[in-house]
Design brief:
The structure is a single chain. The protein is an alpha+beta fold and 87 residues long. The chain is 45% helix and 22% strand. Strand 2 and strand 3 form a beta hairpin. The termini are close together. 22% of the residues are buried.
Length: 87
């Protein structure tokens, strides 16, 4: 399961989440969908659980579209260096 990089701070916002990489001083905001995905991963969930949460919350989103979004979000978080892959 992915974890936040040790020097990344996370805080809730009205819109979703904000992340600050203290090492690079870069700041990111996550929309509500990305926030659900990240929270799920940090709580020990996986892609399938994130898809379940998203499809329950957003009834008009089908499973395939949710799975694609979850994988993309995880990839973007990793590419940005915000999360580290799990064991």
């Amino acid at each position: 399961m992915p974890t936040l990089k040790h020097d990344v701070l996370l805080t809730e916002t009205e819109y979703g989440l904000a992340l600050l990489d203290q090492g690079s001083a870069e700041y990111w905001t996550l929309n509500p969908t990305a926030a659900v995905v990240l929270r799920n991963l940090l709580d020990g969930g996986d892609v399938e659980r994130a898809v379940e949460i998203l499809t329950a919350r957003y009834e008009d989103v089908d499973t395939d579209a949710a799975a694609e979004d979850v994988r993309r979000i995880i990839g973007e978080l990793r590419d940005a260096g915000l999360v580290l892959p799990g064991p």
